[in-house]
């Protein structure tokens, strides 16, 4: 049969197939298989996708109702009073909690909620009914820390254990209860009932698996995947906002059809990843497939004997090629040329030998490149370590200032203690509020006054100041971006009063004005004016300054007037802006125009 390998392999196969009559049988069988497969899988995928959409709709309805109920708890005055109270006895606490009927009414009437738990760090609250003391374990948990650090609610899957140590999982709505004018924190945990979800979502031929965000499985209709990673089932891409998936996978020895989709929870920055599974669709198709294959095999019995001798020879050559490919895939690139002939298989084998040799050379080059990269990364890590060791912890600096202040008080130096206390307040403001989106106008002005107090201690009568706020402006409720007033005051001292001989005055005025907008009606704005009676500047210097502030500072930590101008433009857009006017020998006036934003408790 050596002569048979001298011909083109395509001609070999075509000749045999035509002799055996396999072409028409193969075409008919292929069309039958493809059409049956396409129709069957398409139909079952549509059913599975439809079920997944129904699960999403039902889950959206349940989570929306749960969120709306949590709103009533979070903003209940009686709830705030109960959680903020410092009880003198456990009986007083029980009597107060017993008067709250809002929790029991929803817990009993809305069967989707398995339990409502409220954790508080108020040391005067003991465990009673739905109220629990936030133990150290609770406080250290990721979900508790996340809840007290943000105002928005979020969904998360949480495990719990019963008295027998059995672990259960629930899909939970977690949110902070904002205790107004209280030093304590409280977190609401609303657990959805697994039994209720199972009743609403169960279908006889389908199973549903749900996870929250990137967490493990929090709900499974057949209890098979609790606590496992969802990625063990489907290749979830958490970076996509609306992720969908359709595919198959062997589960418990059965090929199953899977459908994945994403549900964005109502008014909450959380996603629920829903996977629906049909365990039986593939097995049913396999039965149909086997039936079709049996029919085709019966049609191929006659040509089988004609193909047998050829297939044995052809198979031996393919096995040889496969063995060589397997060696290459296993990293063994030294292949002995052992397949002779002039057909495509022989050419493929020769190409494989050449390719294996080239891969071996490239691997050696890649290995050398990896060694060079590791050395570079090692050097970079050493540099980063040196940089980290040179940094000062700002909280350490604040605590050190407080220690120095106490020593000054002990020594009787009240003025030094006062200066350090004011400096500590300024540092605390920068640490706590510097990276916030919004702070109250009152806290910004307090920071400005602390800064001016320090400067007055330094320069005496050379620096005086006045702060005026219109009576119709409530500085506690009006909010602004942090650190937009103090840099202007600092600029006024450094560049306005620096060369002035005594009697320097800095005035800060807060008023309401109306701004004209080219695209809309007039807009109300907060006008913040910083005025100094310093040296002022010439018209030429003023023009240069107005151009220079339009370019952001290269230093990301700079809070000069250029950064204040660009921060306002970046966040608020037109017509909100900053203007500068100055007269040589008279002084400088800087006006900030920002939106009037009211913080509602």
Describe this structure in words.
By secondary structure, the chain is of the alpha+beta class. The chain has three domains: 46-281, 2-Layer Sandwich (Beta-Lactamase), CATH 3.30.450; 317-391; 453-598, Histidine kinase-like ATPase, C-terminal domain (Heat Shock Protein 90, 2-Layer Sandwich), CATH 3.30.565. 49% of the residues lie in helices and 20% in strands. The chain has 16 helices and 18 strands. The chain has helices at 9-20, 22-74, 77-84, 90-98, 102-109, 136-140, 142-148, 194-201, 281-329, 344-389, 394-410, 414-433, 441-459, 486-496, 539-548, 561-572; strands at residues 113-120, 131-133, 154-161, 167-176, 186-192, 206-212, 217-220, 245-251, 254-264, 271-278, 439-440, 464-469, 478-480, 505-515, 523-532, 578-583, 587-595, 597-598. A hairpin with a 5-residue loop joins strand 3 (154-161) and strand 4. The longest helix has 53 residues, at 22-74.
| Count of individual beta strands | 18
Structural category is alpha+beta
Q: Note the total helix count.
A: 16
* CATH fold description of the largest domain: Beta-Lactamase
> Which range does the strand content fall in?
15-25%
What count of structural domains? 3
Radius of gyration computed on alpha carbons: 37 Å
Oligomer: single chain
- Between the first and last Cα atoms, what is the distance in angstroms? 91 Å
């Amino acid at each position: 049969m050596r002569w048979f390998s001298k011909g083109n392999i395509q001609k070999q196969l075509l000749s045999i197939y035509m002799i055996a009559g396999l072409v028409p049988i193969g075409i008919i069988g292929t069309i039958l298989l493809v059409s049956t497969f396409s129709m069957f899988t398409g139909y079952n995928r549509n059913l599975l996708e439809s079920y997944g959409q129904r699960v999403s709709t039902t889950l959206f309805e349940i989570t929306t109702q749960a969120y709306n109920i949590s709103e009533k708890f979070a903003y209940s005055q009686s709830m705030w009073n109960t959680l903020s109270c410092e009880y003198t006895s456990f009986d007083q606490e029980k009597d107060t909690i017993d008067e709250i009927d809002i929790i029991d009414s929803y817990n009993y009437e809305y069967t989707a909620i398995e339990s409502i738990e409220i954790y508080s760090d108020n040391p005067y609250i003991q465990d009673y009914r739905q109220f629990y003391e936030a133990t150290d374990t609770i406080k250290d948990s990721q979900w508790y820390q996340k809840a007290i650090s943000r105002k928005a609610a979020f969904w998360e899957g949480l495990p719990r254990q019963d008295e027998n140590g059995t672990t259960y999982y629930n899909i939970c709505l977690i949110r902070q209860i904002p205790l107004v004018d209280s030093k304590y924190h409280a977190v609401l945990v609303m657990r959805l009932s697994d039994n209720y979800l199972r009743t609403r979502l169960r279908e006889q031929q389908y199973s549903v698996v749900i996870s929250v965000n990137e967490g493990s499985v929090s709900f499974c209709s057949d209890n098979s995947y609790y606590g496992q990673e969802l990625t063990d089932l489907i290749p979830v891409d958490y970076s996509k906002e609306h992720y969908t998936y359709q595919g198959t996978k062997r589960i418990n020895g059965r090929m199953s059809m899977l459908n994945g989709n994403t549900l964005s929870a109502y008014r909450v920055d959380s996603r629920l990843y829903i996977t629906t599974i049909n365990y039986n669709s593939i097995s049913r198709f396999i039965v149909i497939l086997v039936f079709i294959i049996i029919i085709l095999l019966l049609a191929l019995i006659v040509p089988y004997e004609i193909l047998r001798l050829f297939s044995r020879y052809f198979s031996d050559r393919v096995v040889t090629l496969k063995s060589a490919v397997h060696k290459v895939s296993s990293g063994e690139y030294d292949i002995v040329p052992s397949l002779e002939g002039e057909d495509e298989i022989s050419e493929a084998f020769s190409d494989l030998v050449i390719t294996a040799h080239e891969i071996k050379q490239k691997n050696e080059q890649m290995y050398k490149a990896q060694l060079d990269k590791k050395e570079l990364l090692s050097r970079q890590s050493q540099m980063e370590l040196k940089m980290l060791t040179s940094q000062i912890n700002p909280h350490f600096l604040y605590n050190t200032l407080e220690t120095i202040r106490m020593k000054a008080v002990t020594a009787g130096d009240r003025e030094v203690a006062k200066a350090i206390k004011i400096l500590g307040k300024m540092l605390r403001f920068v640490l706590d509020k510097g990276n916030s989106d919004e702070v109250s106008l009152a806290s910004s002005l307090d920071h400005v006054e602390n800064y001016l107090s320090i400067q007055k201690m330094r320069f005496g009568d050379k620096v005086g100041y006045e702060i005026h706020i219109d009576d119709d402006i409530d500085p506690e409720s009006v909010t602004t971006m942090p650190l937009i007033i103090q840099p202007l005051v600092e600029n006024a001292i450094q560049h306005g009063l620096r060369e002035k001989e005594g009697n320097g005055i800095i005035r800060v005025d807060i008023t309401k004005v109306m701004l004209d907008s080219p695209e809309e009606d007039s807009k109300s704005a907060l006008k913040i004016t910083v005025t100094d009676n310093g040296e002022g500047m010439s018209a030429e210097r003023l023009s240069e300054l107005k151009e220079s502030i339009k370019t952001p500072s290269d230093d990301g930590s700079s809070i000069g007037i250029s950064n204040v101008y660009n921060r306002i433009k970046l966040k608020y857009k037109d017509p909100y802006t900053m203007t500068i006017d100055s007269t040589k020998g008279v002084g400088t006036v800087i006006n900030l125009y920002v939106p009037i934003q009211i913080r509602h408790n």
